[in-house]
Amino acid sequence: MPQTATLSPVMHHAQRADLAAAFRWSARQNLHESVANHFSLALNEAGTRFLINPRRHFARIRASDLLEIDADDPATMERPDAPDPTAWGLHGAIHRRAPHARCVMHLHPPFATVLASLADSRLPAIDQNSAMFHNRHIVDDGYGGMAFEAEGERCAALLSDPQIIAMVMGNHGLLVIGRSVAEAFNRLYYFERAAETVIRALQTGRPLRMLPDEVAEKTAREWESDAAFAEDHLREIKAVLQAEGSDFDA
User: Fold this and answer.
1) % of the chain exceeding 70 in pLDDT
2) Cα–Cα distance for residue pair 129/194, rounded to 1 Å
3) Which has the closest alpha carbon to 176: 62, 48, 22?
């Protein structure tokens, strides 16, 4: 990806609008939490310059509201528009350590957070949606408090494997990564749907019908083979918002 300075104004705004649409739809899906949680998007090749949301309700975020910060700039938190300290701690660390994580979405969505609160927080492959994450998610068992800088560095160190697309943050919530806003948001959406299926299945008290490993892996690869699916998903979300007169792209 080109450096921020070489991005055309149209491309730069398009990236901001994609991220703003993801915030708006997350609020509509009840995945948000107060004015907490953050999405970020890398703008330069190294991944260190990135967009992130200010402390604002997801339902009100516009493209122009997003902050542009540098993970390598120690003076970031001295800016008058400094981001939330946990945004800097977690997302700054990930963008420094894991350049493959172009887009990072961290939330406390209801069902994924229930999963994160169980003694075994793995997402079992019991259906097509959960199979998307077969051998592609990890569980962080070392929660140490809010994601200020030390905790952010610890979490970022767990994401060195590019095959990992989601992290269940034990006692905390969910984090997903992707190469674009569309890819990360699609994964966020489907992880929460899969977690809901798993939690509701566990509530029956009956044994889970597990997919064989080879079938789960085949299904995960089939998900990966449809490169256009995530882009189509985000395109349709933006179309709905635009038809409603939303100002997300302002």
Assistant:
1) 97
2) 5
3) 22
Which residues lie below 8 Å from residue 31, measured CB to CB, with a gap of 6+?
A: 107, 109, 110, 188, 192
Domains in the chain: ranges and CATH = 4-243 (3.40.225.10)
For tokens 């990806």, name the residue: 1
Q: pLDDT category, 6, cuts 50, 70, 90?
A: low
CA 71/CA 95 separation, integer angstroms:
7
Which has the closest alpha carbon to 177: 129, 230, 213? 230
Q: What is the pTM of this model?
A: 0.94
Tell me how far CA of residue 163 lies from CA of 154, 177, 227, in angstroms: 19, 10, 16
Contact 178/102 with Cβ under 8 angstroms? Answer: yes
DSSP one-letter string for 67-127: EEEETT-TTGGGSTTPPPHHHHHHHHHHHHH-TT--EEEEE--HHHHHHHTSSS------S
Residue 195 sits at the vertex; the CA angle it makes with 190 and 197, to the nearest 5 degrees, is: 95
The encoded tokens of residue 180 equal 């674009």
Which tokens go with 141?
A: 């068992």
Across 219-229, average pLDDT: 96
pLDDT above 70 (res 113): yes
Handedness of CA 132, 103, 85, 13 (dihedral sign): negative
Q: Distance between CA 156 and CA 150 in Å, rounded?
A: 10
CA distances from 103 to 72, 75, 95, 118 (A): 17, 23, 9, 27
